[in-house]
Amino acid sequence: MQITAAHAEPLEVPLREPFTIATAQMVATRAALITIAADATVGLGEAACLPPVTREDLPDVMLAAERTLPRLVGNAVVSPEACASLAASHAQETPVLAAALECALVDALARSRGTNVAGLFGIASTTRTLESDITIPIAGEAEMMRVGSLWHSAGFRAFKAKVGKSWEEESRALCNMHASLPGLRFRLDANAGFTAQEALAMLSELRRHGVVVECFEQPCARDDLDGMAAVVREGDVDVVADESLRSAADLDLLVRRRAATSVNLKLVKLGGFGPSLALGLRALREGLGIMVGGMVETRLGMTCAATLAACLPKVKYADLDTAWLLASDPFVGGFASEGPMITMIEGHGFGVSRADVAR
Ligand SMILES: [Mg+2]
User: Fold this and answer.
1) What is the CATH topology of the domain spanning 129-358?
2) Considering the chain, what is the average pLDDT of its residues?
3) To the nearest whole percent, how much of the chain has pLDDT over 90?
């Protein structure tokens, strides 16, 4: 496959409601859409930024893309591995851009061969349906209850609760939801906001009220592996590393320090689809559980992540909800959804097209 054109444009889709986590607030996606044309087909990738979870923000990605993309034209790509190495070598300083480039190249390569992404990677058996959780951003008690009730009526039972600012207030909000919305399972995500002591205090407060906690994601700061390890040891809970996992070297460190029992795989952190698949398989061999998530991404990014989840033999947590938080959908295809259930749609590449082109 020979690359004939490469293009980047801002992809800022408004959110239905502001999205607040311990370290950031967003009102629209902060992404760039990467388009690669090759062999009479087109591949798409979403470079989704969410600083400080990602180092880059949208202007950094656009600037790097302007410098990088023209140099890709004329390159030949013959394998999925070549997609990752070409992307990594051209966007070393901007991992989010490298990941989106890799996805766009993988998409184009699979389409040029008339296959889907699983086929391109030689994966014979994939999962067809996934149950996603839904994110409940940090807000006042009444607001969290209002949002929670809406999603509960839509059939969602796994709530990814953003915490990490005040464990006392957040515990109260979660206990309220637990008391009035039957059958909830919580996945806590502190986005690095707590000390180990705060995380452990929150866990015991929630348990005292019978709240079901499936896992505790990134309770402590990225580099506070002692804190993470203390929550693993003393919390009796599945500790998911997110901010602490940005590379294969991070995975080794987490395993060595026993600082996590699961990892959150996000394509934009890890160099795109192929590298995330490889890292996920390694994490499974290490006995870790897998969450597949994303930044605040559109249908395009969510489909790439859902495809990763579908291609891995075992995924504990699908956190693939952000396309449902947007006020509009600039893409078609990839997956169909009903409530929390995602059904993958068969197609070439990742199977997603721009709505304005498909129409
Ligand atoms: Mg997270």
Assistant:
1) TIM Barrel (3.20.20)
2) 96
3) 92
